Amino acid sequence: xxxxxxxxxxxxxxxxxxxxxxxxxxxxxxxxxxxxxxxxxxxxxxxxxxxxxxxxxxxxxxxxxxxxxxxxxxxxxxxxxxxxxxxxxxxxxxxxxxxxxxxxxxxxxxxxxxxxxxxxxxxxxxxxxxxxxxxxxxxxxxxxxxxxxxxxxxxxxxxxxxxxxxxxxxxxxxxxxxxxxxxxxxxxxxxxxxxxxxxxxxxxxxxxxxxxxxxxxxxxxxxxxxxxxxxxxxxxxxxxxxxxxxxxxxxxxxxxxxxxxxxxxxxxxxxxxxxxxxxxxxxxxxxxxxxxxxxxxxxxxxxxxxxxxxxxxxxxxxxxxxxxxxxxxxxxxxxxxx
Length: 338
Prior knowledge:
Shape: globular
Largest sheet: 5 strands, parallel
Distance between the termini: 19 Å
Radius of gyration: 20 Å
Strand content: 5-15%
Number of domains: 1
CATH superfamily: Glycoside hydrolase/deacetylase
CATH topology: TIM Barrel
Order of helices and strands: EHHHEHHEHEHEEEEEEHHEHHEH
Helix content: 40-55%
Number of strands: 12
Number of helices: 12
């Protein structure tokens, strides 16, 4: 079985990020330019075009090479199984169909902010209609650590219900803004009816990231069973000795040279058999408005290499095309849920 990659997209707009909150008050949000719809469509189209292109290549490759060729050998940027941990397989009639299925189901999980879903319900339906998973990113991008228990549970329940009303199906997952979880937050997420959380980031040098102890929880693939039938899907980071390096995406994906980043992903896949990546639609939008009032450090974190993100993301999809891209819920159904 090929390793799994879980692509996750935090659907928020350029003016809703935590680094700019001091300079862009919530009351001004309705007057800001909405760019998230266009950028999310670019990501959706990229995933669709990648799927169609590589499915057609796979069919042609199968006709030419028959059963002697691995399904990914036609790709120009293919990884060796030794470096990526992705084992090749021969194309019998059954495995050829499996290969086709793998290539045709490269899906992502979109953690959608409720404030945006309320204004762009058609975008939420579009994400769902294209076969991706719709999950919650909360309602107003408030840090979990800055809310009372009652406020947090209202945020969790309201955003879940809104998304479910839009797509007409259950919403299973949640991601906290800025990964701001705690043990109590996990309990609230579970109590509000979610199957999983995907907010734990083990990189300890970021002040906003929450701290929970999942080391003693049972491991199923890259998932941790926090309590019976409630799971944590952590952001993937690179551990070298006792040190943890941020390798899950976001600003680190834009800052670390692309070839080094992919090499680290290969190591994670080899060691764990799975990798969870995150990004935001605004990260492929170098033309977005600039928040000049913000400190230089915040502006650097937000704007570094925006012009190269889409290309690097496309390269990553191509380089790891011999792995299987699943939504978080699909992964849990296949790996963790009895």
